[in-house]
Automatic annotation (TrEMBL):
Residues 1-102 form the SET domain. The lineage of its organism: Bacteria, Pseudomonadati, Candidatus Auribacterota, Candidatus Auribacteria, Candidatus Auribacterales. Transmembrane segments: none annotated. This is SET domain-containing protein-lysine N-methyltransferase. Signal peptide: none annotated. It comes from Candidatus Auribacter fodinae. GO terms for molecular function: methyltransferase activity. SMART domains: SET (SM00317).
Length: 171
């Protein structure tokens, strides 16, 4: 049985829904596709750019169906790491899957904005593409869910988001 299915999700157009329940941390869909160098990817037509995701610091992938129809939410329930779409929390059968599009969003590539239709309680009204353009408390909440290449690329900025360790002086 397929893990997900697509159907119209109100004003957002098509969306992707869980075909069964998933536990937090469970892998849901693998993002297929061939990595394309960023400069080549950015020169592609808009309909491809709309479904493009970074897969490392230098490459993008044009996402295919069904995963290309996963909508944005300011209260996401999935994230992407090492090309897997993974449950951020327990997800019920029939629930819509949603990312925060700003996760792993690189400055200079993902510097776009759009109106948000997610209608969640913590909706930011505008979706931005860049991770570091997010409010700091949101950045901090997403640290455990960022992709490995993104954490590597922005090591220092992300280290500053982690809780400050309490230094104990043993004398
Ligand atoms: Zn929103």
């Amino acid at each position: 049985m397929a893990a997900v299915f697509t159907r119209i999700a109100g004003a957002k157009g098509k969306g992707v829904f869980a075909a069964r329940a998933f536990a937090a941390g469970e892998k849901i869909v693998y993002v297929e596709g061939t990595p394309i160098p960023n400069d080549v990817a950015l020169a592609m037509p808009q309909e491809k750019l709309d479904h493009m995701g970074s897969c490392d610091a230098h490459h993008c992938i044009v996402w295919r169906e069904p995963e290309c129809y996963i909508n944005h939410s300011c209260e996401p329930n999935v994230y992407e790491k090492n090309r897997w779409i993974i449950a951020m929390r327990d997800i019920a059968e029939g629930e819509e899957l949603a990312f925060d599009y700003a996760m792993n969003g690189v400055s200079g590539i993902d510097d776009w904005q759009m109106d948000c239709l997610c209608e969640s309680a913590s909706c930011r009204k505008k979706v931005c593409g860049e991770f570091f353009a997010l409010p700091v408390d949101v950045q901090r909440k997403y640290v455990p869910f960022l992709d490995d290449w993104f954490v590597q690329m922005y090591k220092e900025q992300i280290a500053r988001l982690r809780p400050i360790p309490i230094l104990v002086n043993f004398k």
